[in-house]
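Supplementary Methods S3. Complex input for the xanthosine-5'-monophosphate-bound model.
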Amino acid sequence: MAGLEMFDAPEFIEESIQQMKATIDDVAIIACSGGVDSTVAAVIANKAVGNLLHCVYVDTGFMRKNETEEIEAMLAEQGINLITVKAADRYFEALKGVTEPEHKRKVIGELFIRIFEDEQKKCGAKYLVQGTIAPDWIESGGGVRDTIKSHHNVGGLPEDMTLEVVEPLRELYKDEVREIARELNIVVAERQPFPGPGLAVRTLGELTPERVEVVREACAIVEEEFEAGAAAGEMELPWQYFAALLPVRSVGVHGDVRAYGETVVVRAVRSMDGMSARYSEIPHSILQKISTRITNTVKGAVNRVVYDITHKPPGTIEWE
Ligand code: XMP
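Predicted complex, serialized as structure tokens:
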């Protein structure tokens, strides 16, 4: 499709709408995660065949602070008819005792498909619109490379799938999708990337609502402090920045009492496309504020905060 240096977002949008109008003649379903890719695909599909489109958002319980409410408001503003499935209880139940990263991703992916299939049966969709972009199928080992991590939005579609798949963004890279998002006034456009399985891959070890809540709070603190630091000109905003909860407990003191608490790692990287990355150098004053806030506000569960100084490679950006 469009070459990088001559990419014309308005033209791409218009062509996609026309193509979808010509292809989709029956009920279509799309899963929207609130991320830029699926939102752009949903908005384009809505413009093309809005009356036939069922847009499903699955609240897994692994979203960032206030994210579900923000996604619902953003899609409503675009005029999209959204079906929210509250599924946190089902996810925690399915993930009981699961700690191995790839196993975790598999369980999350499979449950997502099951929930989605139920929704598809309810509306009788014939078409499946997906926001797949080029790096999704390249990095998920489209026959050429090894699977590095099984990316949530590609792996695991059932083999007996009878839906016809429509992928309007399949040939595009992230910067092109962001350009389209800006053109369509989608607010999510400038947000940092967020993995499909969400905070589940930032909660190492056992997944419990309490541990995920710690990660949610810690991620919110990292975002607030980095964004404030960048706005004040004290640092450059990294490409991606977050916190993860490690399966490591250590001894500390809480008041006068010995505590055996958990460990949060702060991760921040510079990158172009996520394929490789350099860890970001962050002023110690900002790291210190983050450490104090996390250990003070996250209800005594965390007594140690560390900063990750690993590039990709050899590390990946996420910890799982
Ligand atoms: P890694 O950890 O592999 O991540 O260095 C590279 C980029 O991809 C994001 N990521 C995902 N995105 N589904 C996604 O859509 C996933 O399953 C997934 N896992 C990781 C990660 O946040 C980083 O930006």
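The domain at 202-307 is CATH 3.30.300.10 (GMP Synthetase; Chain A, domain 3). The two ends are 33 Å apart (CA to CA).
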